[in-house]
Design goal:
The complex is a heterodimer of chains A (about 525) and B (about 170). Chain A is α/β, with parallel strands linked by helices. Among the domains of chain A are: about 260 residues, no CATH class; about 45 residues, no CATH class. Chain A is about 55% helix and about 10% strand. Chain A contains 20 helices and 10 strands. In chain A, the strands form 2 sheets. In chain A, strands 1, 2, 3, 4, 5, 7, 8 and 9 form an 8-stranded mixed beta sheet that branches. Chain B has about 170 residues and is mainly α. Chain B is about 55% helix and about 5% strand. Chain B is built from 11 helices and 4 strands. Chain B is globular, with a radius of gyration of 17 Å. The chains are: A alpha/beta (about 525), B mainly alpha (about 170). The interface between A and B is large, with 57 and 55 residues. Chain B: GO terms for molecular function: calcium ion binding.
Amino acid sequence: MFGILLLLLVPPVVLLLIVVIILATFGKSLGIREFYADVLLRIFEWGSSAYPINEIEYETDETLEGTTRLRRSSSSDIGTLIVREKSEALESKLYGNEIEPGNQKTVRVIVNDSLDFITEWKAIIEDQVTSRFKAEQLPSWNLLTRTRFSFQYISWKLTTLWVGGFFLRYFVLVPLRTAVFGVGFFMMVITCFTIGLIPHQGTRKWLYRHAMLMSMRIVARSFSSIIRYHDQENRADRGGICVANHTSPIDVLILSTDNCYAMIGQKQGGILGFMQTALSRGEHHIWFERSEANDRKQVTERLKEHTNDESKLPIIIFPEGTCINNTGVMMFKKGSFEIGSTIYPIAMKYDSRLTDAFWNSSEQSYGEYLWRMMTSWAIICDIWYLPKMTKQEGEDAIAFARRVKRAIAQKGGLVDLEWDGMLKRERVSSKLVQLHQKRYFERLQRTTSINTIGEEQSEALQLMQQMTEEERSLLLKELDDTMDEATLVKKVNEYGPVVRKRLQSSTASNHSQLSNPGEKKDL
Amino acid sequence: MGNESSLPMEMCSNFDAYEIRRLARRFKKLDIDGSGSLSVEEFMSLPELQQNPLVQRVIDIFDEDGNGEVDFREFIQGISQFSVKGDKSTKLKFAFRIYDMDRDGFISNGELFQVLKMMVGNNLKDTQLQQIVDKTILFHDKDGDGKISFQEFCDVVGSLDVHEKMVVKP
């Protein structure tokens, strides 16, 4: 009985698969996925409005981010923006973005800045950096258990929905998706290996391009991905460098459904490693080991070589070097900005309402990640092609990288951060701490007179140390906080003759104690 | 802790129950080894603090009993000094204690030197740094005892917007 039922199921499923694959091949859509996503979003919205579960849920939620999210979403994003600006005060001071009057009183500047350093401590309550490496919390529950820690009974309606969703995802979507993924994957591998055998370069490249677009589209369908491309006229042509923000290993897959790229990246193991080998058969890609520090120069060389060759594919680079949870953009490594002077920036923003596409590589393996994507609702991603950017005259690679990053952050609606994404794995190096100190020193030089400590000033200091208590209190009465340092020094030096005279007389005569008061009255 | 043991209750009143609960969760998260207190290493797991030159100073202030670790009570107490509800003199006192390393109520020449050294590193020659320190102490030490008292410190900082600056919302 069961067997017959299964047999009956086979033809429609196969038919469905064929339709999906054919559609994917030509990049056409019947609008079913869009409709499906729309329905899901409506259900979630209904769920969270009909049952304001957030309050209850987050109270018992184990993470702190949950609560922050809730508070933020209720007071919109304005609140977070203000906090951020505040913590950027120090940063802008150190980078010298802020125009401040020079020649300020050293003490005031230093004390003021030490307050800023202390203020940085609000990081212990909520820091911007480590929270970018963890999955973002959602404002409404999307019926995926993983966005929360365990399933909780809220109401029978939601429970039914959740159970229904679970069956749909695991027993209908997963088998279909696995089949589509399998077809796409093997198609890619097989075509790559066979295309690699074709001797004629032109034919090979043409075939590779189309085979890749086709198989990538099929693979992308296996996650029910809905990808919206914007400003496609800015797409990179041959021999350029494209940079994008990095969220997950499927970033590249998603980008590849619209354009063909040469890849550069870290060598991976397992299924990803196999894919890398396959890809290298068909076109020119660059793979390197993260630990191969001495290889880096060679990598740059190869990159240069690659970009200079017009016949080669544009390279896609994720200069953050690690996956960020798609709420911010972290520091861009300068390496990719040293090679050519033209960069094609791409901003990617995932809609996390249906699936969180972020890969937390320190918690999940690639296989686990793929499984999670397969069992999720759908991946929605917006891609913006930004107009190409060129290095300006006198701009170094770091400044150029920062400018490109800012542009991407703006387009994708992400927070622009100055932090190194590698902090996920490593601690801040002492070199960086020293850099911080150096920047701070430079700031002091800009704003105070510490670098002009001259003869006159040391003289004044010496004088003040030689003064007696009464002389000093007299002097201090004349000085006030509004004077700048030069006037202060001048004032002090006016006392020079008096003090020197006293010193001379005190060494000359042995009853210095007695002669002092008399001299002071002369003032 | 000594005579300050009466402080926590009144300091905690800077936070409501909800905020305390949130801070407790945060504390638990920072306490990686689950020892019930935060070590310097645990604080340093926050990238923002790793670069901060005054990190050790702030930990020392938080660490009231001087055992090298910050327990939850010290954590709440420390943060409450940044609270919106905290008054200006608390915040000034905190800033003062950054420089007053031995907690004797005065900033000595040596202490100021050490803290400035933390901030600028080796970018300034020790002799130059010493000059800045000497100058600061000489100009602001109104009573001529060779060190800066809290009152003298307030005179320097007084006009700065300490209150607005040192505010953290949990």
